[in-house]
Predict the 3D structure of the following.
Amino acid sequence: MTTTNLGDLCQARPGRAAAGGQVALRLVGPDLSFRDYSFDQVDALACQFANVLCDLGQGNGAVVAVFVPKCIDVFASVLGTLKAKSTVLSLFANFGDLALIDRLGDCGASCIVTRRASLARLERIRPSLPALKVILVVDADADLGPDVLSLPARMARAKATFSSAQVDDDTPSLIHYTSGSTGKPKGVQHVHAAASYIGHSMAEIMQPRPNDLYWCTADHGWITGTSYGIFGPWLLGITQLQFTGGFDPDSWFRILAEQKVTLWYTAPTALRMLARTTDVDYRSYDIGRLRSIFSVGEPLNPEISRWGREVLERDIYDTWFQTETGGIMIANRPGLGIRPGSMGKPVSSIRASIVDDDGKPCPIRTVGHLSLDYPWASMFRDYLNRTDTYRARFARGVYDSGDLAYQDEDGYFWFAARNDDVINTSGHLVSPFEVESAVLELPEVAESAAVGAPDPVLFEKIVVFAALRSGHEPSDELRMKIRLHVANRLSAAATPQDVVIVDRIPKNKSGKILRRVLRARYLGQNPGDLSTIEDDV
């Protein structure tokens, strides 16, 4: 089957329906000044970018990485890449060397959009990226080298129209990387056909109205930041706001009040940080236009639900989905009674179930594997270079999400735990393997292990255990060195909150790190069965 190009669906169609002059994007700066872009203006920028890619031989199948903080170039390059029938690789702007090498190398990205501040890092790792041919710099007025090119200069010469042919449903559109517990991150491949489900799910869950102003705080390096921070509102012709500054309670609430935001999609970590701020009186801000608040990324604890009702006088609607699902699968929403702590109920077109290890339905209130009947339009189509891993997710005849949950008598779903060692910190899924690999680069460290531990703000914090080489002693300086090294090599989100020096790392007889033992000991809990441990530690 063929479908209309996702890049066109997000701009050209809403633009024509609204005569093109409707505001598509309100970009708010750190000083809270803002600039509006109409649907026609964003579409023209996307068309120019598509023409730039094609002129450089980067259209029709190339992987184009977007490695810049939130700015207008993000939206132009994402939509323009889709128009050119190439694939977007959306990256967090604070990724370090190892994180970039793993992702850019795995997907064979041949073009990257970046800023001057990141050029030294890219040049340092470029020998490890033979597929990378072109670097487009968003803040350079002139070319900086034969293949380090000024994007503004090329955009100025490019036509503001572009003819996008229809694409097959399974034409690749987007790659996001998620983390594995025992290996490098996995590239999750999405397709243009996802558009129909993203629009449908946003309409059902968030229930936008024609004159709404919608704000999704998620970074575009995260699936939420693309599915519902770029595509969703524009597929429905809704104006969205984006803030280019960092987290700040006063700035955030001034934006909500002064810009008269009506729909707000954010993360439980951000809400917990807001709730813990004692020097800001949230009741002093006029947020009367704010109709609904939604959250995503990790479970929304009941205490924050109560805070929303008592302080903001609003319900907070928790939503659940994954990088792999591409869109919201289970959610609370207006019109559905909230049970604090619950994930809510599935979107109308989604069939979710709780099954045991054999794929059989679990009794009510019995924890099992949270699974989804497939297919659905926004589901991922593969793990890049790991098709066997992809197929294993469907081995029980349903999609196994990797989450453990249960269902109550009224059809509400309740999260219990992850079914692997992946760490969910502030909504970012961090691979313990990646953290451990980075720590092992330090000459002082002989062995390392990383686990997640409960945290009142982050949901889970990263705890690193390090066994030192002979001649090295524990110190606060070494612990800080480990934390900074991980942050620089991976990202700020992967920074360990605690570093514990140990004599040795417990492993089973086949050499696998027993993270559950370390986690239990850190939390002062019973580590359980130790019969498979390699030594008495």
Observations:
- Residues 38-191 form a domain with the Rossmann fold fold (CATH 3.40.50.980).
- The chain is about 30% helix and 25% strand.
